[in-house]
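Researcher: I'd like a structural prediction for the single chain below. Treat it as a standalone chain; there are no partners to consider.
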Amino acid sequence: MMTFMLIGCSNSASDWAFNFVVYQNNIYNVSNQTLDHVEQQLGEIDKLVTKEATYNYKRTFSNKYPVGTKIFKISNIDISKSIAIEIGEGTYLQADNQGEYGK
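Model: Treating it as a single chain, here is the predicted structure.
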């Protein structure tokens, strides 16, 4: 008798190649680089997406960080290059721009 085991794939954020934030229609790859200095708050995550797909959502969203997560400008770095994601009180990770989302 042969027994087969089927293993399904989940569509969680861990399936994606990297944790990201889409801000102003650009996709930012969130790194493990911690930051000491940030400037003003730019916005916050409006939506957490849980299934891998291309979303036609014109606001700020992430596959990792919950609604309300704050986004900041990094001192001396243009937001077209990188932004900061607050992961705890006074703790920030650098997120680097990978280009226009969905292209």
